[in-house]
Design brief:
Length: about 250
């Protein structure tokens, strides 16, 4: 469904993403992980059209969309959430979600009906009249998810949608994400919560210092020596292997 080919993104003398390629299969939940500052959110911004890459291509269902604007990509079916959640503070929950549903439903009654259905889907059905500013962190995360989902995407880009949640909140939202995929929405997610990555993702890409260093199943990636060293430092893989040998 989605491919990036040798994406490079430079900001002056800083190369945030360097020749990064990946593929997201239709109907999958695919993960993008890596240490802080690896270039993950920059990669998402390129895919969603908020940044024009210095080099490389973004391909959507085989077509080059590298130069399309974000709203044009949204029309094609690409939606994203943001790492820093910023609801429209002057609007209530229903109105926030309706902003997204207007993309496909220009008539107000239809847009509101769609927003209500999406709110129920993500667990916000009882909060519709609440000001968005009154929501908890978990509620705001669900609202961010709902607003993107209301655009009726084919591909949903989730940027750390679980960040800041406690273990029980993470446990509660994992089935919501899985159900969205089961309803036909392909999901590509950046996540640091490895519990979620292991439970949700079928394939994972690892970005470190702007470069793709690994790809594969979550279990394979977590045991990759290069990935371990990217997170824990040079020599960490060997130290862990030695500890394993000692325990054996």
């Amino acid at each position: 469904m989605l491919r990036t080919e040798t994406i490079t993104m430079r900001f002056g003398g800083l190369t945030a993403v360097d020749q990064a390629s990946l593929a997201v299969r239709k109907g999958s939940i695919t993960g993008l992980i890596g240490p802080n500052g690896a270039g993950k959110t920059t990669m998402f911004a390129v895919i969603a059209g908020f940044l024009q890459p210095t080099g490389g291509q973004v391909l959507w269902q085989g077509n080059d969309i590298t130069r399309l604007k974000p709203h044009q990509r949204a029309q094609l079916g690409i939606a994203r959430t943001f790492q820093i959640v910023q609801p429209f503070q002057g609007l209530n929950v229903l109105e926030n979600i309706t902003v997204g549903s207007y993309l496909r439903h220009p008539h107000t009654d239809d847009a509101i009906a769609k927003a209500r259905a999406v709110a129920e889907r993500v667990g916000l059905g009882g909060e519709l009249e609440q000001p968005a500013s009154n929501l908890t962190v978990a509620g705001r995360k669900r609202l961010e998810l709902a607003r993107a989902l209301a655009t009726e995407p084919k591909l949903l880009l989730l940027d750390e949608v679980l960040a800041g949640l406690n273990p029980s909140e993470i446990r509660d939202i994992i089935p919501v994400i899985r159900a969205i995929r089961d309803d036909g929405v392909t999901i590509f997610m950046i996540e640091h919560v490895m519990q979620a990555v292991m439970n949700l993702c079928e394939e994972v890409y690892v970005l470190a210092q702007g470069q793709m260093i690994a790809e594969g199943s979550p279990a394979a990636v977590c045991n990759d020596a290069g990935v371990i060293e990217a997170y824990l430092g040079k020599g960490a893989a060997a130290r862990i292997a030695n500890l394993g040998g000692a325990h054996a």
